[in-house]
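Ticket #4471: structure output looks truncated?

Reporter: J.K.
Steps to reproduce: submitted the chain below (735 residues) through the standard prediction queue, then opened the result file.
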Amino acid sequence: MPVQLVVAQSDTSDVVKKRYKSYSDLLNSITQLEYADTAMLSYIDSIAVKKYKEAFVNSDSTILKEMISLPSILKIPLFGKPLFSFNGGYINYQWNFRSGIDTPFVEKNISQHLITGTASVTVANAIPLRVTYFERQSNSTVFRDFRDVRVELDVAGFQKLKEKRLKEYLLNKYDQTKDPFLRPFKEQVGNRISRYKSWLNYSGIRKKIIDSREVLSSPDLIIEKPGVNKDSILQAAQKFVTFYESVAKNMSRHQKIYDSLNLLYKAQERKYADLKALLQSNLNAPEALEKLSRYATETKLTDQGFDKMVSSFSAVKTLAVGKTMPNLSSLTVKNTNIRGVDFEYNKNNIYLALVAGRVDLRVRDFVYNNQRGAPQYVYAIKAGYGNKHGNNLLLSYFAGKKQLFATGSGMQVQQIKGVSLSSQLKITRTTKLMAEIAQSASPDLVAVSGASKAEFNFKDNKNLAYSIGLVSFIPSTRTRLEAQFQHQGVNFQNFTNYRPNAASDNWSVKAEQYVWKRHVKFVAGFRKNDFVNSYVLQRYNANTIYKHVSGSFQKRGWPSISVSYMPSSQFAIVDSLVYEHQYQVLTSSINHQYQLGTAVSNSTFSYNRFYNDAADSGFLYFNSKNIYLNQSVRFSFYTANLSVIHSDNGNYVLNVLDGGLLFHTKRQNTIGFGVKTNSLNKEALVKIGYYGSARFTISKIGELSIWAEKSYLPTMHSRLGKNEFYTVSFTRYFN
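Returned output as attached by the reporter:
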């Protein structure tokens, strides 16, 4: 534990002493008035003397002085905090085994080792970082082994740290500016007023003042007795009335002081409440930060320290080193894995983004293990004026080397570069318009004489690309609309996707609509030639149209329903012949969770239909109808599951019946097993598979999960083939 060095708060001690002296002087003056009142006690009867001494003679000035103390001195550590502090993380190891892979890449007895880890570290108590590691090793001849490391600024953690420091700073400034004596002195004056009222309203005192005033108003009614003359009675009555009125005046004087102190105290508390309400808002929002700055200026809480903290607030949006996927724009750099640096800054309408590194992807090498990576790299800069999510005008430049064709084509990598001008305009608070135009300098790969040198030619539209988009939300009807159009010239190249050289026009429209108090949602979308997946190669002079219509219903206590239909078609012209491919998918599902006695029950039904043929699909389930039904019931100590699967495409009929139990033990540990019966084409011989699972939480060590399954899947020869799955996973969390 660091040694504490005591340092006096010299910058505020003079102010504190002056305030303390002013309150002490006022306290002394009031106390002197009390002493002046007590000088008259010799003329008052014993009852008044006793009550007054109980209330005032034992002065509370000492108590008040003990309540009012100078602000506590600061304690500053002699030694600073450690350079690195660990804030938690986790590590996960997973081993997978598959006896067979039913994909276009056929392999047997494939084993994979996956390691994933994340650690959060704070540097110098100021910079939170997140370190992520991923590794994959396998005995596959297809899938590559690789390791990825990423070190990035924890932007959310950085903003929280900045927000915490700003809150502490403002609260400390408020404590320095507020009056520390106001509340205790107000309470003490209030206590005195209560004692005044108690004395003045005491029944004996009230009777005494009534009798004294009656004597003074009607002296002729005084009946003299032996030893008591009229003058002494009048003198005693006059002195009591004078003393009583003096006490009443003192109470009135205290009441005025209390009212003034109470107004100051309420204003001070209102100021604190307003500050606290502002500090509880999300300071990452520009509106909240602007409102807080305006409040701090009005209440004189600002200084150079405050301005410095606000100016650097939420400025860095992205800072990552290692495996990154930058997102500059759809016509420059996007959706491309890069091993390098990714940086983005946006503050005070200044925008800057930098990307540099090696491209970690080639054409068609996302699975192939026996190919060496092409030496591709990219660097890009994007700068301009405005807010990333608001109005802006941004200029980009990118350059690097890129593999334009598949390996073995004779052309490995080509030098490309380009510039882009993009802008975003917020038409309304919920509607924005985006536009971008880009020009690349890449080889003329369609020239008869072969590829040429990459040079800028702004008069050549073959290297031109542009896009325009609109996003809008209508709050009154809860309607969301999206529309986009993009054109790419025949020679245009960037680091967004991989494509052979072909001019393309892509457009898309999408609409979302909620009805019936947001319980029902409809979505409709249309796309043409929108190849966002870099693994899909565009065909020259080909048109592809995707359509999507879906509806869903969700309401608490009711079944959830969803229906989706996605038809698509592709037309390709090859040697004057027109080829049409159609692929349509219909999906629907119903899910309902309800109480069944003391148990929780869940029912699921889904129906899928694929409308296509074997020529349009590389997998077995073409033109198939699939029905899935599941019923689960969760009791206190176990969960029972029953599933039925039916699949039919005309060439085969597959039926699977699955039943299992999952037992719950202490600390959320589970052990389960199940049995599957598999029947293909109504064969008399039914294949029986089984599976088991377990999950254990080991105190101070981690979580262990195990899954083992022996199952049967349809093969290309219309038979049930044996397939085994094993998975072992271990996770350890660190705090």
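Triage note (M.O.): checked the attachment and the full token line is present. The chain is about 25% helix and 45% strand.
Status: closed, working as intended.
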